[in-house]
Design brief:
Layout (H helix, E strand, L loop, with lengths): L1 E3 L4 H9 L3 E5 L7 E5 L4 E5 L2 E7 L5 H8 L2 E7 L7 E11 L6 H5 L8 E15 L15 H8 L2 H9 L23
Antiparallel strand pairs: 1-8, 2-3, 2-6, 4-5, 5-8, 6-7, 7-8
Amino acid sequence: MEFFPALTDDHRAFVARQPVFFVATAAEGARINLSPKGMDGFRVLDANTVAYLDVGGLGNETNAHLAADGRITIMFCAFDQPALIFRIYGTGRAVLPQDTEWAELYARFTPLPGTRQIFVISVGEVQTSCGWGVPFMALERERQTLSKYHAAQAGTERLAKWAGRTKSIDGLPVRVATVLPDGGGA
């Protein structure tokens, strides 16, 4: 196990090859949230900053936890060779389409149907470990279900749903998108 104060070029190359990552957050009095992510939504902005594009689903726990506590852990696993587990420890915040920094940040991503926010993480430390217990697996293909769902939904309908989801499953406040990003649907 090794710790690093920032992402190295080798770390960036490893992250770029991974089709899935996991996000963990928690807040006092709330359950731990652990979610898998894919869909080409992760970007290394610099050695001390990463971000990921968040596509709307049922909950918005990461938004609530980051507003309440700020702590976040991102984990990548190599399912091929060489074996590796890579964790990013940091603090994060949500950037929504109505925020002033949205356009510049969103330009770094491929637009995805249903995009509701971008989480920006200030890297505190990164850690590598062996990953020898992680099985070999191969990506067959991305699931299209969520993209198809959002593409078929009117943007006004999506905004109305988000407007009604102002609390996490544990009752913490959630800041919601009030406008759709360009390419996010009409």
